Amino acid sequence: MKTSEGRLHPFAAVFVSLQIVKGLIVPLIVIFLSKHSRSGSGTPLYFQVGWSLAALVGSIVWGFLSWRRFRYEVSDEQLKVTQGVFVQKKTFIPLERIQSVDVTEGVLHRLLGLVRVEVQTAGGQKPEAVFSALARGDAARLRNMLEPGKAPHGQGKDQGQPEPGVLSAGSEPSKLRLTYKLPAGSLFIAALTTGGFGVSVSLLAAAMGKLDELFPDFHVYRYLWNALDAAMIPLFALGILLVAWMIAAIASVLKFANFTITRKENKLLLTRGLLERRQVTVPLRRIQAIRIVEEPLWQLFGYSALYAETVGYGAQKGENAHLFPLLRNREIGEFVRRMTPQFEVPASLKHHPLPRRALWCYALPAPLVLALAAAAAGLIAPWAYAGLLLCPLVMIWQGWRYRSAGWSREGRMLVLRFRRLAKTTAVIPLSRVQSVSVEIGPLQRRLGLSTLQIAVASGGRGAFFRLAGLPEQEARELARWYMDRNKR
Q1: 290 closest CA partner among 303, 306, 305
Q2: Domain encompassing residue 484
Q3: Which site among 52, 190, 219, 281 is 20 to 30 Å from 315 CA-CA?
Q4: pLDDT, tens digit (0-9, with 9 covering 90-100), for 207-251
């Protein structure tokens, strides 16, 4: 039985220390800038500095001891990892349970010629083993020994000559290897129209809400209110939105620059990142469903993003679900056929729109609830009646959702189309469905309609796809389609 032993690069001690210091930065800033530390009644400044230096020295010592105690050993059957400063922890991972070996290169890693390696097993909510700093050669050897999904090499089919533009394809004598790369133009469009704008606004608003707590002596908002004219406040709010949009665009560029997806036999290798480079492995058999998402602006130009619902990667790896950040709609069929052939949808598949009576289920409830809420709030604050002006807009949006929704099915493949703000097309094989439920509300019962919910395994909690307004008979037929899966 062959055995290979190793340890982390010595700079791993530095990375552990920096991680501890990073967690201490914000508390230290709050302490030094707080009103309590400025008044004479607080803890003396030299005492605070002394504790800060002690925490810094402690983080350095902890990082060194963590590096000294970390060992790993790979045999023909398992990976063994030993770590822990005071309490020694030994982790044994059978090689056949390993699903992915992911590689990350941060800025410091790249400067020092190092990489971070994470080992993930089936059903794990987080990496079972993390190698914070390995030399590239050591990481390559470790990855080869832990390579998941090994299978006998089959004879690959000839894929023809590479196509111009986005797709480049090639074949090796005994392997199938296909590659898509994200062009600079698509990256630019994805960054400017990113769906992360709302997240940036929320984070920026949360940060601004803490300003008065971090700087209580400055009274930030009182100063801004006195300094700005009333007419300037909308411009100030517009500036905040512009900053949030710029942050979201820059974050998207940093995340998806150099995005490449490669299919190598029965797995996908996803590489991305400008400052921090990441390479993750997604076995094809772990993909449960594919989502094709069209943001409203993308629909004008015929673009979509592709996501994969995967099982066994945990919630913290949600970013790995990006199969491709932005792709022309006319290229999606070829992309799916080559990269994830088990989710290929026949071009002849007939789309079934929702019946006309389902429009009432979309266009009536939301505006009605909004109108009642605005009328009730207007009894207390008359300005709340302005909410009634939003009812027509909500009704138009709900009608848009109705027109976008529909479904189709052929053999063992189900396709659901629905919209919240972005239009989503979910491609779900019968073998991946975990459960099917049919819900009928009071209004739906009168109209003979229902809501179909499909669940697939994904991360820790699973993924759910809901289609409202489906005729009750068709929904029950789809439920029977699932119940009779073993007879097919």
Answers
A1: 306
A2: 349-488
A3: 190
A4: 666 655 555 555 555 666 666 665 666 777 787 778 888 888 888
